[in-house]
Every structure is written in C-alpha cells, then in structure tokens.
C-alpha cells in the first residue's frame, strides 16, 4: 500500500485521495454458488481530473490465493490486470470506477527514488540559495539531459542536498521511474517533463550493431550473409571487389570498402551470427553438465589424437582413436569446436526409465503426503509398512524401502517440515534471499539513516555493584541474584553502513525507557533520527508513547515477522561479533555457563566478576564507537565509518532534519497510559503515578478542573510536565525531599511491596497514596526496626531497584559528558544498618505506618511499567 501512496502523491492526474473510505457493498456468488452480500472497505478513494473511484492494493501472491477461494470476486483479466466484477458493478452504477493494484505493477525504481526524496517533501524545507539555483538551471537549460554527476562538477557551489531539493520541488525534472537517484552518473536532468519527452524523441536512433555480429561475417567463398532482409552468398573474393549471388540467379559485385562499410553499420550480417548465440548456449550447456572427470577424459583423448589431426604421426590410429577422430570432426562441423565431441556422455548411459508404474507412484505420493507429512511425525519405516500393506491389499507390487525413502527425501524440505513441525521449524529450511532483484528496494537501504534497527540482548558478563563497593557493605541478600547481575544492552544500528548509532547499557530488562535512551543518544550524537526503524514484536515497541514519538518525527516503524530472525540479521550478527570481540574477553564472562554441569565454584562467573556498569559502559562505547566502526567490515570491504561518510556524501547531509537534543528530551518523556495521557487539574495539582505535582499556572480559574496533557520523567519521580496555556511547564512533587532521586521503577516496586504488606497486615484501605509512599521512602532512610518480615522484604525489593538505578545514573552521567564519580548514597548505608539489625524472628507488629483518613480510596491495579 505504501507504493500506492507514493504513486498517488506524484500523479499529476490525481486531485485528492482518501485512505480507508466508507465501505461499499459487494454482491456476488461464492465458489459453492451461495449468494454473498457484505460490506467492503477499499484502500483508497481517488478523485482524478476526469473521473473518480475506488482503488484496492494487494500483493500478487495474495490475489492468486484469493482467486482460487473466491473466483467470482477476484479475476485475472487480459494483459495481466486484476478485476473485481462486483466492485466494478457497484461503481459503474454510480458513474465511478473500481480498480485493483497488484504488487506485480509496482514500479520499484520509482519507489526507491521516492524514499530517497521523502525527507525533502516537508513544509519546513530550506530554500536553495538563489545564486546556486540560477547556476543549476542555466546549465540544465544549455545542456538538456546532463547527468547529475556532471551537473555537480559544473556547478561547484551546489551540494547534493540542493539538487535533491530542486528535484523534490519540481524546479528541475528527473524521470523517477528511469534510474535510481543513487546512481547519479546515469540520472539525466531536464528543465521539465515536456523537454525530457522531446529530448527522448529527437535522440531516438536504431540500436547499434553488436561486435559479435560484425565479427561474425567471414569474408570467404561459400559464406552466407543477410543484406536488406535478403539472403546472399559470397561466391568470389577479389583484391578490389566481392561477388555476391542471390538465389543462384542474381549476381552483383561490391567494392571491398563498400562491403566493409555496410558490415560496420550492421546492414550486412552473417547468417552464422544469427545462430552463433544459440550455438554458444548449447555449448555452455554441454560444458556445464560435463564433470571434472569428463573434462580430464576429453583432454586425454585429445592428446592421443592430436598427432593424427596435425598429420605428424607415422603410425595408424587404433579403433578407439579412429572413433575419437570421427567425433572430433563431426563436432567441429556442428559446433566449430571439435573438443566438444571428445567429451564422454556418461550421463546418458544407463536405463533411466521409471521402474514402477504410475499407479504405484501416485499411491506412494499420497501416502507420503497424508501419512508422513503430518503433525504426528511418523517415521519413514512406519509409513512404509502401511504403504506396503495397502499395496498387498490392492494386489500391486510394492517398491523397495530404499525407493520409498528416496521419494520422501526428494520432496520440498520447507513444505515437508512445515507440515510436520510447524512454521518456526520450517523457517530454517525456507529459501534464503541473499539479495533482492536489481530493481527492487535494497534490503539495507541506499544511504545512512534510511533503515535502522533497534534490538536488545543480555550481555554475556556478570557485573558487580560499584555502590556496594563504595559503602563497603555486603548486601548480597538484598538482590535475588546476589551482588552480581548481567546487564541488558540496547543498540541502534544503521543497516546501510553497519555503524552503531547509539548503545545503551542498563540493569533493567528491555522497556520503553531503553528505546527512548538509544534514540536520545542518537539525537545527541548526530542530531537526527532514522527514516525507518526496524524492530521485533516486543511490547516495548508497541507502546503508544513510542509510536507517537516516531510519528511526530515522521519515522516509519517496521516490525519483523515473528520468529524470523533473518529480517534482523544485520544487528543480530553484530551481537555475535560483540560477544567474540568484547564480552568474552572480559573477566566474569558467562561462556562457561553453556555447560552448566561443568561449572564449579572456582570458575563460576559470579565469583569472577570485577567490572562495574559504569566502567564496562565506558569501554563498550570505546569499542563500538571507535574500534568496531573504524575496522573493515567483511560485507562492505571498508569500515562502517567510511561507509557512513560516503553514504552521507552521496545522499546528502539533510541538515533540515536536525533535532534539538533539549526538544527531543522533553518529547521523549512518557505519558500515562490511561485517559489518553491527560490528567484533571485539582487544588492539589495533577496526579501521576499516585503522586500530586504542582505548578503555579494551576492556580488560574481557567485551568482549574480542566484536563491537561502530562508527561513524567522515568528517572526522577519528583519531576513531571504539563501542557498548560500552549506550553510545557515543569511541575514538582510536594514530597520533594522524601522522593528526591528515586525513579519510576523504584516507585512501582515500592507500591507493589506496600500492597503486599497491607494485605498481610489486613489493612482496610486500598489506595497507595503519595503520603504513604513518602513515609515509606523516609522509613527506608531511617533506622526503623519495628517492621515485620514482610516489611523487610519490601525494603529489600526497593533497595535492589535503588541499587540498579544508582548504577544506571552513572551511565547517564557518561552519556551527558559528566565524568564525576557517583557518590555513595546515604539511604543505602542507613538501609543496610536497618536490615542488618532486624531479626527474622520478630513478631508481626500491631501497628503499621500511620495513614490519614484522606488516604483511604479505591485501589486501582498498577500496570507493569
């Protein structure tokens, strides 16, 4: 359908078009003869200059399948055009049209060029300098059809961006269906479409004669030639003229210079030239089928008969040599290459006729399809036994087990595995497309930032906590995994150049925050976002905030098919390379965990861990941003950085797409998932994630009780933003001191643990209020010992998340360019003392953290972040 958008946008005959128009009613007979009447929503309703109607876009494969299921609705008409008779009947009654657009009609060159220019179809497009524009137009006017490369060389002050803007805004004309813009040495430039058409008509000439045709005319008596559609034969070759005879009746003489001139112009061609291509094809086929042993045997035979062919032998050839000489001379007459006759025809020897009847073969194929290729996954021997019994019952001779087994293995592996084990197992047998057809869109784009991939992986290394080392304590019991943990790596890779645009490392599992961080790092490093982002089917890529952000910046999200890793092979391959070159060279790597039974305490990666998150992120950035991208890539034959710079030079810098990091930081903040991201302004402010946030603009009468859009910072719960009076304002929490430095993930953890604690203590309230959360975080930072074991577990869970967040903050400091080391957090010291002084045998307390009456509200289940 995307190609349909492109064509409609660029079609001069189209005035307006609407996608997903109101449905229309189709009335037709089904395959079984039953009357079908239902509503159908076409893809487009198009208003053209002289007509209007509905247009439907489908793939050729889908239409072929639907034509078999519903032949009265989908029909392949003349000239390969698809038709929908019920749709055409409905449209004709209204004086409109209904047409199909199949994928077979896609103009792939046009689509590639449209994607190339898509960044320049924007309202805020910069204007080309007037002097540059005049210089370009004057050169094009003086030299119609000049190619882009020569135009850039003639107008030195013009950049590739300037030419792309002139083409996108129709100030100069380029046939977008002729040649990809990625090949500027072949792209012709004109002032307008009429000039291009006129130029094409004037420069039309007959196709030049190929060299093979010219050279094929052998000037000797007996050679047949073709001249002006008639066949002639050379009967005499003299010093000054050549004699030609036509049909043994007409004889003429041509001077040698005239004959040679006619041959050079292609007006005289040898009849041999017309059959030479077919002879060459036949010779190539014979040589292709000849094995190495066949060629060795032909060489041996030629060496044996060479003296007789040259007349240098004093002996007589034996019977085999006479047979070889005869074959050599016959092949020389037929193929003009006698060596062909010396190749042995072993492949034609033997009896290749089928040994079983067609009836038995049909029965065998039916048993393989109905008994073997099923989800029961029966063995070949078991199916053969059933087949053998069936043959005995029908009184026919059954084939051998070996022949049956060969018949099973000769069937298509993909279809067979699909029927026996499902589509995931069959994916390994699916045909691998090493490259797309020349005219189709390249799988990795034609320039940097056109197609990029985002993906996550858990690093193969155990890390230690720098916070634990800083406070000098042993808090392994705080985390379920002890003091060590494996981080998660999120990457953004440019598919065209294989350059890593952004890398982010965190202890948290993949989430919306990881996606936002790699995009934020990309904007910080390059000031722009990709045109298309390829992702898998993870929940973090389907969030409304992520999709809204991409839509705002005109980024297209493309999701890989489920369980088909080859669609992300570019970034998946790098994960393997990073393991070999980086992670597996660090102390504490988890290679040995592949063989768990061989792991002992002395070699356990958890006991070997020495790297902290901050330090390993420093070296990871150095590896991906310096070492990897400056080393030659095997698929590119140059480094990713050089490929990236060359692609930018070829495709243009596109500076009008630059994004302010501060602007992007605000827009990348998430919104609450409910109520379309809006909150009602009350006397206390706006409530986000159980906390109230206030700004002085809320005191206005017009703002009070209105719904405003809100955003929050995932890394600091004391800050939120609200869209008031057409601007985003920064709001603060009333519990600033108690909540300072805590993240939303930590807030969620505390809320969940408090809910569990309340259930155990039989509390009759259901809302986790901001006041209660503030009291809980305050208790974490004080030496309170009157908590029960459930309270102890709550503290442990909060501290575990607190430790992760403090580690990630050091990574954020590196991203922002802050080299200051993280100071130990006082709350960790206090909580360590609190937890170490508690006893597991403490009785359940009779009182919990006090609550006010205002805190008792209906509890709403907290969604997973």
TrEMBL record:
By its UniProt entry, which InterPro entries does this protein fall under?
A: Integrase_cat-core (IPR001584), RNaseH-like_sf (IPR012337), RNaseH_sf (IPR036397), TnsA_N (IPR014833), Transposase-like_Mu_C (IPR015378)
Q: Which Pfam families match?
A: Mu-transpos_C (PF09299), Tn7_TnsA-like_N (PF08722)
Residue span(s) of domain Integrase catalytic: 444-648
Protein name listed in UniProt: DDE-type integrase/transposase/recombinase
Provenance organism = Funiculus sociatus GB2-A5
